[in-house]
Amino acid sequence: MNNIVNEDDFKYYMQDIERYYFGARYNYNELLNNEMVPFKFKTIITKYIKDDVDYDTTLESHLFYLDTQKYDYRIYKQLKARIRVSQYKKPEDHSRGFKEKVYTIEQLSKISPEEKIRLGIIVRELIISKLALFAFTV
Fold it and tell me: What is Dmax (Cα atoms) for the chain?
């Protein structure tokens, strides 16, 4: 069962004491319609992120191509966003499989899309600090 059976398996929302976790296959419209997503994060999406991103864009696509010069990057930076990815263990030998890694938004955004493709980076999850979301002023 190594095959992806259901696309919805990658659309999830979880939380623990410190963080919120969002599956990267969610698009922004689905996040806005999910009653479990924190209201403040929905407000940030509708007030700030909507200007740079279409609501049909998935978190996976948006975070993969996120540009450090855009306003949405600064929002995620203030939210202390971290991104869980899968990437090749050895980019020169794809047969070695994948490993999981967590990048800060700054680290991931500094990598060019071409380099991300070479490394085999697949965005899996957006992680947001609860304290940073609480401190964010809307």
Answer: 46
For 110-119, letters b (16+ CB in 10 Å) and e give: eeeeeebeee
Q: What is the pTM of this model?
A: 0.89
Instruction: Give which of 48, 2, 22 is closest to 123, Cα–Cα.
Output: 22
Q: What are phi and psi of 123, to 5 degrees?
A: -75, 125
Count of alpha carbons within 13 angstroms of residue 84, beta-carbon side? 14
* Numbers of helices and strands, H then E, in the chain: 7, 5
pLDDT in tens, the chain (138 residues): 344 556 667 889 999 999 999 999 999 999 999 999 999 999 999 999 988 899 999 999 999 999 899 999 999 999 999 999 999 998 888 788 899 999 999 999 999 999 999 999 999 999 999 999 999 998
Asked whether 85 and 122 are in contact (CB, 8 A), the reply is yes
